Amino acid sequence: MNIFNEKESNVKSYCNRFPVVFTSAKGCWLTTDKGERYIDFLAGAGSLNYGHNNDIMKQALLDYITNDGLTHGLDMHTEAKAAFLTALRNHIFEPRNLDYKVQFTGPTGTNAVEAAMKLARKVTGRANIVTFTNGFHGCTYGALAATGNQHHRGGSGMPLTGTSRLPYEGYAGIDGLALFEAMLNDNSSGLDKPAAVLLETLQGEGGLNVASNEWLQRLSKICKDNGVLVIVDDIQAGCGRTGTFFSFEPSGIKPDMVTLSKSIGGYGLPMALVLLKPELDKWSPGEHNGTFRGNNHAFITATTAIENYWQNDDFEQHIAARSQQVTKTIERVLKRFPSLFVRAKGRGMMQGIECKRPEFASDIADHCFENGMIIETAGPDDEVVKFFSPLTISESELEKGLHIFEQAAEHVSNAATRKAS
Q1: Strand ordering across the sheet containing 384-387
Q2: Best exposed site among 43, 122, 178, 243 by fewest CB in 10 Å?
Q3: Per-residue pLDDT tens for 111-144?
């Protein structure tokens, strides 16, 4: 551990909460250098929807490497990229009646967000981007301007400009869409007509806030009526996390652009995309680029993920069953420990439970770690315990993790009762 304290920057965060050295991982399990095993309810913050070292993807990657397939190719044509685009078209776009061009950006989510914002401004000739309270879109300058979290915004070192913020659904009891529509139609509102709105349909870091289908449909109509583009940031909520491949599918909307990263690479390998309607593809060659936009290893595992998990609805049914397991546990502990918890948050395998005090959430996460589970908190004050296991988790493994959580809640409840008395 000394080498980490000696040489690694203070910007590190997850390891502060989980101060162990991991040596291997499989499925939903992590193993340390001391042989301790932890069930993983963090899943790379959504980068490991298919689990650690998924056997199917690992074999495909090993075969590709053994045959000296290209590792790095900038944006040159490769068989690996062709296979990925074909799988994406055949198994994701066409069954959902979606028609998108695919832009490969630098391999992080924030780069995809930057590219989408730049393209929206380029296409419309307008600079302003409307974002929403509690949204999180990344920590590079443009994406950070669209992010609400003050802790992250405080690291910018300079003013964050180019965005306007509106209330997300349910925020402070305000009808943010009525406000948005009124401001768009009032020449004295002070709102510069935006190029686009940028939103998560289910806010991850912001506390698992869910936009209803009706709200999303209403927002989409307002934008269409006013010539404003809709960008859905599906970096954390996409690739099956909410139960469908895209989080916006139940609403029926068809965003103008979608950003994907995290689990799109399948194996946890870096990869990020902007999906854009063909008429928006106004880029000049190389106008937005990145040295590592051609990660062929990620193309291989991404293709394998799509072909093995998204050719039919079996995986969606599995996610639905596991989601119901999580929901039942949350409903039970809400009744058992009314002094600890406020309400359920999220949907699918992106659920959580809001605590009455942030320290309750922190204490629960700490107790889970002491008993063999990695779990994180989310929300403006880290008041939400966030259930984020791999989607491939089995019924029995998920039950084990949920049992550890419920025991932790009981421990914290008892401690709070003793302290109060």
Answers
A1: 341-347, 350-355, 384-387, 376-378
A2: 178
A3: 999 999 999 999 999 999 999 999 999 999 999 9
pTM for the whole thing?
0.97
Q: CA distances (Å), 160 to each of 43, 132, 145, in order?
A: 31, 15, 5
The tokens for 418 are 């003793």
Render pLDDT for 196-223 as a digit per residue (tens, 0 to 9).
999 999 999 999 999 999 999 999 999 9
Confidence of residue 37 (pLDDT cuts 50, 70, 90): very high
Query: Would you mind telling me the total number of residues written for the chain in this entry?
Result: 421
Q: In this predicted structure, which of 13-17, 278-282, 333-337 has the lowest mean pLDDT?
A: 13-17
Contact assessment for residue 194 and residue 128, using Cβ atoms and an 8 Å cutoff: yes
pLDDT tens-place string over residues 146-183: 999 999 999 999 999 999 999 999 999 999 999 999 99
Burial label for 2, CB within 10 Å (0-12, 13-18, 19+), is exposed
C-beta of residue 223 within 8 angstroms of C-beta of residue 192 = no
Task: Map tokens 């806030």 to a residue.
Answer: 209
Q: How many Cβ atoms sit within 10 Å of the Cβ of residue 133? A: 19
| Tokens read off for 397 | 């493994």
The CA distance from 220 to 224, in Å, is 6
